[in-house]
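Tutorial, part two.
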Amino acid sequence: MPDIRNTSAFKALATQTEAELLTRGLDVVSVAVTNVLAHNVTMVADRLGIQPRAALRYIEPSAVANQIAKASAVDSDGAHTVHGVRPVRTDNRSAFMPRWVCSRPLMALAQAVKYASSNGDSRTVQHATDLLFEIGLALGADSASDSAGLPLGLLDEAADIVERVAGHIEADGWSVCPCEEDHGQTEADTRVPEVMRDDAELLRKLRAKADA
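Running the prediction step on this input gives:
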């Protein structure tokens, strides 16, 4: 499909699909939507024996959005490999807190990245790393200030990630070092979920202060 992505009809379908995903609370990077849409066009064209341009009329944005939503659901097989999908942030407010308090979400997310990377969950690694970068931007915005403002959506997403990783450690046997030799990681893994849930609870409390 050398040129179909550059046609106005294809771009219109991509825009409609992104809009459909937003109504479902999913913010998906454009390149991911484009790739899935292009794959659908190719499949339809091959199945019907027609040109890709002609296949565009058979593509429903809602059906493509369904595919992306289903594949990105955290409980779906292979969801850990789906990148570029984020919950839509509908609240643009920030929660302001002392700069030193920001060390808790930084450490919690770093711990989540360590466990996720050691256990093959690249999606969590990418999402948590993005949030770490976002916290860094907030801290660097005004280095002279004693406080920093973290977006409420960031706190929500961070709490969910940290709690989900804690669940994987308990239910799925995630280890900080999943090698065959025991060098103390089992004892560490046993203690971590409680700490991570405490971190998640703190994040939710910080987020709740914005509504107080």
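Strands lie at 26-28, 85-87, 94-98, 147-151. In part three we will examine how such features are distributed along the chain.
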